[in-house]
Amino acid sequence: MLQKKYNKDAFDRVDEERRNLILEVGTEEFSSKGYESANINVIAKKAGISIGLMYKYFATKEDLFITCLKYGTDILEKALYDIMISDDKLLKKAEKLIRTICLHSKQHANYIKMYNEICAEKGSIERIRVIVEEIESKRSFIYVTSICQAMEKGDVRADMNPKLFALFLDNLLTSLQFAYTCDYYREKFRVYTGIDVNEADDEQVIDQLLRFIESAFTLEK
After folding, report:
1. Is 175 helix (H, G, I), strand (E, B) or coil?
2. Distance CA 153, CA 75 (A)
């Protein structure tokens, strides 16, 4: 789990509007400049608080980074969890997942950019391991559990490894997130499709990705 080394009590006592502003400004700084180049002094200034008060809330830049990351991932994980624990069949869940990813990527672009920065992280292996464990373990559990339940019900093919299929599914959805928010993946989308992702028909994207996932989960040898 991510270690909340910041002064949680002090930060939680801040009113919600100011707390969210600090996290949003921090996310903007980290997503646009990357972890190493992000400046906590700049974040404090843009958030309208003193650097001394910032360090009262967060002992280090890493503490602030992890808190911003956790704040962003919690928004998406709550939506994913509500979808995956429903009684819908797996492919219906997949459709809802894709729609949620499309909407979330547009509404919370900075959090996705921040996630992309993590994927390219070259810093402390310990920080990487902690962050990956926090983000991916929850999502992995949700996906693997849903796939196993679908297999038990006979809704999907029986000859797959749930853990590997969960990984492949998450990779597809992550790439879709990045296509809407990150320059490299946006250009990759354009090269493959000839269309700017911001001008693409979301319904067509959802339909085609769902067909791809359906074939993977239902066609056996």
Report:
1. helix
2. 30
What one-character-per-residue DSSP string does 151-173 give? HHHTSS-SSS-HHHHHHHHHHHH
d(CA 114, CA 156): 34
Q: For residue 157, what are the contacts with CB-CB under 8 A and spacing of at least 6?
A: 151, 217, 218, 219, 220
The angle at the Cα of 209, spanning 96 to 100, to the nearest 5 degrees, equals 25
User: Tens digits of per-residue pLDDT, 114-146?
Assistant: 888 777 766 667 777 877 887 788 889 989 999
Q: Contact, 84 vs 93, CB < 8 A? A: yes
Q: pLDDT tens digits for 11-46?
A: 878 888 999 999 999 999 998 888 888 999 999 999
